[in-house]
## 1
Amino acid sequence: MRTFLRDNGLAVFFGLLFLLALGGQAVAGFHAFNDDQVADGAAPASFTGYLTSSDFGTDVAENWQSEYLQFALYILATVHLLQRGSPESKPIGNQGTESDEDQQVGVHADDDSPASARARGRRLWWYSNSLGLTMGLIFLGSWAAQAVAGRATYNAAQLRSYQDPVGLGEYLVSPDFWNRTLQNWQSEFLAILSMAVLSIYLRQRGSPESKPVGAAHSATGLEG
Amino acid sequence: MIGRWGRLPVLVAFTTGAVACSSAAQPAVEAVAGRFAAAVARHDGAAACALLTDDARRDTETFGRSCAAQLAGLPDPGGLQQVEVWSDAAQVRLAGDTVFLLRFPDGWRVSAARCTAEADAPYRCEVQG
């Protein structure tokens, strides 16, 4: 157990934080939802009813889609785009998908490389792009979930305020959908920008997200 | 911990639930809207008032008015034409009226009736909570 926790500390820590935050969001969102219900003259929901509602689903999905978009774009952008001085960037001159030797694929794979790294053709292509593709697929799935659940939430609110519901096409171009989407995107992009730039000049000793404390500001692609 | 693939079924459940819940509630909404329309058509104000939300009923009884008398004087709203149900709210278009309903623990109730569409604004309803 101690070895497991030592070797998987990052996943365990953030997994627990995720569960706690999701639980806290559920409780806070439940009370906020019922405050609105009472104000609209509607019946308060049970906690279970709220957890299975489109309101909760929308609030979860709109955050998940932006996180996975952030990671998908970050993973893909850092293949080709550089930032001098940032540990978030590859070294200057290293842009692109790099050589097979550098990437340890094909004949350059060693004994403990994943089996797919020794493959060729389509199998190697899929594995070589599996991280970006997975993040991108989860983003698209989460965004679709936000659209469907968001429309249900929006239409319920429309009916409670004696207005007509809207179709999915109309919802996808509505201010409600794009306000939810863009308010999340702007924060994700700002976070990456902050990390890419601040890490040029600031340090966090011991973190692989930082350059070594004594590294030059101009040093690019170093990890602490 | 929920793995990266574990999140997908959760989101599918939310979105499926959002759609399925509305379809399952439609018969109950139609039943209540139909009973309300029938009560108004036969000028049975008391029966129609019993199907209103508490807020809507209270609104019809302001200034000493009687809910039953108010609703008994309404014109025949006609038959059901279109039903929209989203979560705990519904809209039913009748041949001569549009009504809105809300779901409570004891069933659906009419929250607004005699509603007229207003361009880019909420419906204007003669009976509402």
## 2
Amino acid sequence: MVARLKGMHGSGIEALTHLGQNYMVVDRSLMPEILQVLRNEEQFDYCVDITAVHYPKREKQFDVVWVLYSFPRNERIRVKTQIADGASLESSVPIWATANWLEREVYDMFGIKFDGHPDLKRILLPDGWKGYPLRKDYGILQQDNEWVQINLGIESGQ
Amino acid sequence: MTDPNTLSPPSLETHVAAHDDTFLDTNELVINMGPQHPATHGVLRVILRLDGEKVLGLECVIGYLHRGVEKIAENRTYTMFNPYVDRMDYVAAVSNGLGYCEAVEKLLSVEAPPRAQYVRVILTELNRITSHQLWLGTHALDIGAITPLFYTFRDREEVLKIFEKYCGARLTTHAFRIGGLQYETYNGFEQEVKNFLNFFRPKIDEYEELLTTNRIWVERTRKVGVISGEDCIALGVTGPVLRASGVKWDIRKAQPYANYKNFDFEIPTGQNGDTYDRYLVRMAEMRQSVRIIQQAVEGIPEGPIMAKVPKVMKPPVGEVYHSIEAPKGELGYFIVSDGSTQPYRVRVRPPSFVNLQALDMMCRGQLVADVIAVIGTLDIVLGEVDR
């Protein structure tokens, strides 16, 4: 499968296995097409999860990860891509409807924007919140004190 | 004051409502349900767009119970984070623990010894029964049947007693450790589980007697909140909801974990994907859980309960995704290790969160009262939705 994808898209794809689980690292420029091909031609019809990992020391700070599953093949695969802080990705909502809330959560927690998302806004945190809590530079006790004071009428949530 | 005699008598012309455009306003109405609403099973806020009593669309507002579980994980060691996972889906805490422990075990490349695996299966399946019991009681209560709640809570107590005797806690059990179990089973554990199974088998029939052919129940649930198998897959809906739509898929069979491949059981499915079929599927799942526990409790092998796991856990650099079939659907853990004692990132793929996304689609064109039924049938736990 990977050989075929490589033939179609060149060197932007790298296939790896860790602990018996397959994943591929895909260049950001190939991103929406590869997901589309996986969905339509390779039968990965179920998008299990979308998440991100923050590596503040790297130039491209974020790993965005799609966990996919194929019902006909009974097989899982992860697709990873790296993007820089402030850069955005093409939304995968047109490919899998379930990506809607999952991408909103990635935006909420990491501040990664998805172009073409139908309703990209915070999902777990309140709309006016400042900061993205799952970034590594966001302290565990840190919070948006201004929001807490205005909306909850208390000095601090701690 | 006006003399009533001077007023013109009412004429049929001016008082017929049909002549008055504003009398029956046909505009759409937006109303708010929750977050403090008894039928939302926690703090879920739903904004409904209505035409009369018909739902045109809805939006869920969630996050009221957000505690930042994933952030906490990054600041705790692997062992310290273990009890936190119980607080997500607090009615199926054992399943959460199983998923987390197995994911970390995969990362460490260790496997729990066979005896531990058997006890794990027994406790997880008992937990599936309690989760379905709680769902049945509250779901029926939402729809208007009060009796099943008392029946299910009475019987659920028996399982909770076993949990309490085994590990000291009834709900947030923290029953498993990375590598196996902390506690050996107590004296008479097997017998008590067997007694429970004998006690519980006729109770499922009792629940079904109350509801399965009850005309009010059938009218309120049949053809309500219908979702097709294709839509379930597109929306990532898993668990009993997916199976009630005719997709025969259960991670215990598709990609077996623990030692489920040693047990003989079936995957119950429905055809119509409506609330009634989801009810039947969950009832059948309780029977299958009883079957699994019966096989497991008769075959518990002797041996150690803990694999060789270092006291200070430092999994090698890498990442793993491991998922299990929780009572509500696919519960997955994506853990990234940087070789230190604390996980670099823990992502929980919660079944309730993803399933809740289908609420809008399932409620469109239905009545307001059916929204309550659909929220109930999705079997969401807000602690897991918001994490």
